[in-house]
Design goal:
Elements (H helix, E strand, L loop, with lengths): L5 H24 L4 H18 L3 H6 L1 H57 L13 H14 L17 H5 L28 H5 L3 H10 L10 H8 L1
Helix pairs in contact: 1-2, 1-4, 2-4, 8-9
């Protein structure tokens, strides 16, 4: 068996490297996008073709075989490096996007927690503005429901007794024949009707006291206007 030269050994090494690179590139092309896969598969076929030489050709033209295998291997290695670099950049971008999305979710959850903690437990209801008319009605209703003031009853003075009556107190009754005719008292003057305008000047308590004095009924819950109408 003839001993192989250094040129033949170098050609065999280049052919074996090209064949291994072609197999790896074909396997890698299955996981790539269509455009990158087609380009890498084409270079892998060229490297496989450069490595597919007969022993006779290898023995006759070892330098030519080595040169073709080395060129195909270099092109395949360069293309594979670019594809792997793009894949690495794509994976890094995907990881960065995932990390950014996770950070957004964490920040959103933190803000919700802070807003929940800052929210007061019991919120006071907003103040309601009360109009002057409503305030007047409320004051009148409070005055109507309050206990009425009872004025002191005036002390009536007894009419002065006649001198003759005083003289006859304790004395024996005179004879019927000599008894003078009884004195007739002058009739009292008729009381003029009360004007309703005077009633309107009185307070609710005074109107109720007047109704009580006149022995009216059902006046405790009446308003001032109704009391004036009742007493007029």
């Amino acid at each position: 068996m003839a001993k192989k030269t250094k040129t033949e050994k170098a050609a065999e090494s280049a052919v074996a490297a090209a064949a291994d690179a072609a197999k790896g590139a074909k396997k890698l092309s299955r996981t790539l996008p269509r455009k990158d896969a087609n380009k890498l598969r084409s270079l892998a076929e060229e490297a496989a073709a450069a490595a597919d030489v007969s022993k006779k050709k290898l023995a006759r033209k070892p330098r030519k075989v080595e040169k073709a295998a080395t060129a195909a291997l270099a092109a395949l290695v360069k293309a594979t490096g670019k594809v792997e670099a793009r894949l690495a950049a794509r994976r890094a971008a995907e990881k960065a996007a995932e990390k950014k999305a996770a950070a957004k979710l964490v920040e959103k959850a933190r803000r919700r927690a802070e807003a929940r903690e800052a929210r007061p437990v019991h919120e006071e209801p907003p103040a309601v503005e009360v109009s002057s008319a409503a305030a007047a009605e409320a004051a009148e209703a409070a005055e109507a429901t309050a206990a009425p003031e009872v004025p002191e009853a005036p002390v009536e003075e007894a009419p002065p007794a006649d001198v003759e009556d005083l003289a006859t107190i304790g004395a024996p009754a005179p004879a019927v024949a000599n008894e003078p005719a009884p004195r007739r008292r002058a009739p009292k003057a008729a009381v003029a009707p009360f004007d309703a305008s005077d009633l309107s000047s009185l307070t609710v308590a005074e109107l109720r006291a007047k109704a009580r004095a006149e022995q009216r009924t059902g006046y405790s819950r009446l308003t001032k206007a109704q009391l004036v109408e009742l007493l007029s």
